[in-house]
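Hey,
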Amino acid sequence: MSHFMLSLCVGAAAGLLDVIPMLARRLSLRSCLSAFCTYLFAAVIIFHSNLPYLPWWADGMAVTLMMALPVVLTFTGKERKATPVVLLNALVFGLLIAVAEHFLK
């Protein structure tokens, strides 16, 4: 399997893991699709980048946190309770993607 295909598979798995609880809460399809695409694209970026001055495990956390920040800023006025959840998910899934990239390449 190529490096790119592996990044897509890991991203799809991370996206599905994030979307499953969202579907259980009956959130909108738009929100679920947004979360899935965020982690799908984050995995591709993590697999093909190397941020300077960061260890391998922090690359994923930094990338997903940067990608989640605009999402958090869009709903800080309405749903402030969701902000810590989204940021924590970004850190956890970023770490999991980085671990998968480190051990599967």
